[in-house]
Glycerol-3-phosphate dehydrogenase [NAD(P)+]
Amino acid sequence: MNFGILGAGSWGIAFGNLLRDNSQNVLIWGRRKEYVNEVNQTKRTPYLKNIRVNVPLTHDLNEFLNFTDILVIAVPVQFIREVFEKIKQFEHKIFLILNLSKGIEIKTQKRVSEIVSEFFNVPYSVLSGPSHAEEVASKIPTAVTLAGEHYEFLQKIISNDYFRVYISNDVVGVEIAGALKNVMAIAAGILDGLGGWDNSKAALMTRALYEMIKFGQYFGAKKETFFGLAGVGDLMVTCNSKHSRNRKLGELIVKEKDLSKILTNSKMVAEGMYTVKAVVDFSKKVGIEMPISNEVYEILYNGKDPKLSMLELMNRPLKNEWYI
Ligand SMILES: NC(=O)C1=CN([C@@H]2O[C@H](COP(=O)(O)OP(=O)(O)OC[C@H]3O[C@@H](n4cnc5c(N)ncnc54)[C@H](O)[C@@H]3O)[C@@H](O)[C@H]2O)C=CC1
Ligand SMILES: O=C(CO)COP(=O)(O)O
């Protein structure tokens, strides 16, 4: 089988190297020609320092689609639709779609599987969990969750002695957990920026998990999914890791206060800053209480003082129900 990976960022390349280690055929599509040429020549990417890129890249979508049997999505969620518009006529060539991206589209409030089904009538799977590209590319032992169609085949083909794939039958839960933990990691970064307190971080992560579950259950996600690698596993790594772009964005907003300034000076894609918009819009519309997400939104987009957010979160009416 030939794996065609859409997206030549850190995760697309690290995952491509992983598949090569498993003797699969891989081609990565990148949208910037100069970057693609540079990576092909140097076998290096600025996204992953000290890592050799073991897979070829192309900028040519025709070449990419002629090669591809299994289409792997590794572009930021807000751009998936734009890329699909360019490739939808190749549906007959694609045997299976495997999604690696974690987020919710702002303008439609859709998950990736829902965007995919607008364009393709093709089997779909999603792979998610605590898997920073930098560590996977360095072959650090990692375990993730896979949900969707052809899961047994994918589990075997992707797993190896440093990457272990567990299976789940909850596509909705895996997608929502992966999207929401990015929002929560921004909140964790904000806490780190304010003081890096242990008690507060533990409380935040626990309540974040609760908020993720409530949101997920609205869409029929299973609670247990959030207690697995795609849920609490990814929440732990993203809220604590030095590699996390979402956590770093939280830290930066405390220091620099101005989101547009941060984005001008940085190439990083922090999916949570987009997903939070979709989550806050949707949860307000249907009446799901999402206090942490709301505060992340207020701090990023309305310039709210993070200290005030924390004070208000602590002073919400006390709960008189049993909580996890
Ligand atoms: N970096 C990581 O450790 C992990 C990332 N992910 C997820 O994978 C997805 C991709 O993340 P990364 O590779 O880290 O991001 P990245 O920022 O390193 O790269 C994203 C890629 O998408 C491309 N891109 C940006 N805008 C585009 C557009 N308009 N059209 C087409 N391509 C465009 C970029 O040029 C780049 O090649 C995200 O959803 C992220 O949450 C999931 C697991 C681990
Ligand atoms: O999803 C990730 C790790 O599992 C990557 O998180 P960041 O996008 O915050 O770096």
In short: Residues 61 and 87 are 8 Å apart (CA to CA). The chain has a mean pLDDT of 97. The domain at 2-169 is CATH 3.40.50.720 (Rossmann fold). The first helix runs from residue 10 to 21.
